[in-house]
Amino acid sequence: MKAHRARFQASEDLLLSGALAVGLEITPDQRAAFGIYREEITRWSARLSLTGFHQADEIIRGGFLDSLACLPLIPQEARHAVDIGSGAGFPAIPLKLARPNLSFTLVESSRKKTTFLQHIIRRLQLSGVRVVWGRAELLGQDPRETGRYDLALARAVAPPLDQMRLARPFLHAEGRFILQAASALDETMLERAAGLGFAVAQEVSLAASLGRPGCRVVALQRLG
């Protein structure tokens, strides 16, 4: 029992300290919500290939904190966001817990994963979140979705340039795409991004406490 409590406390400390590294002071209600989220991921992963994270510290560091690393690049005025290839809900659900005023559309092509997403949204009693079962390539052609969003995210669903291609139709002019990159973008990548209608608006490196030192989070602004 003592060992269990010690592991639980270590997980709590990891979440709290990691969140502080991106400027977020987690409230007791948020802490409880992240705890439920972690438990549900663990429970569902026992029967569904939901995520590659299995241990509590992996879920917190690789799932929650890696998602929260996007926070500093999200404008305060942003209200509507789309998460392409949401999977287990990263980065959208941790960001929703941190920024309740953001509304999210979660796009996921796996029916089983959409079932999980719908479940966790109900379990956490999240409002302003909808799940769409389908492919982003097709949804991005829907006139009801094109140009609708202030913010787009697409964590690791494809190489960076392909992520940009998927995200661009959803964004209005001057909307932001948040790219979680393995390293800083080189000149060639910047030129190709410009060819797709994006320019770098802001960029930050991940703190070592977030588990991926050397990695970057890049805000790309749509140009027209």
Number of distinct helices: 8
Overall residue-averaged pLDDT value? 90
- Look at the helices and sheets and give the structural class: alpha/beta
Give the topology string: H per helix, E per strand: HHHEHEHEHEHEHEE
User: End-to-end distance, in Å?
Assistant: 58 Å
- The helix fraction, in percent, is 40-55%
Shape: globular
Q: How would a crystallographer describe the biggest sheet?
A: 7 strands, mixed
Structural Rg = 17 Å
CATH topology: Rossmann fold
Quote the beta fraction. Answer: 15-25%
Please tell me the total number of domains. Answer: 1
Question: Strands, helices and their partners?
Answer:
Blueprint lengths: L1 H20 L6 H18 L10 H13 L11 E5 L7 H7 L4 E6 L2 H13 L5 E5 L2 H4 L9 E5 L6 H8 L3 E11 L5 H9 L2 E8 L10 E7 L2
Parallel strand pairs: 1-2, 1-4, 2-3, 4-5
Antiparallel strand pairs: 5-7, 6-7
Helix pairs in contact: 1-3, 2-3, 3-4
Question: Describe it for me?
Answer:
With 224 residues, the chain is of the alpha/beta class. The chain has a single domain, classed as Vaccinia Virus protein VP39 (Rossmann fold, 3-Layer(aba) Sandwich). It is built from 8 helices and 7 strands, in the order αααβαβαβαβαβαββ. It has helices at residues 2-21, 28-45, 56-68, 92-98, 111-123, 136-139, 160-167, 187-195; strands at residues 80-84, 103-108, 129-133, 149-153, 171-181, 198-205, 216-222. The chain has a 7-stranded mixed sheet, with helices on both faces. The termini are far apart.
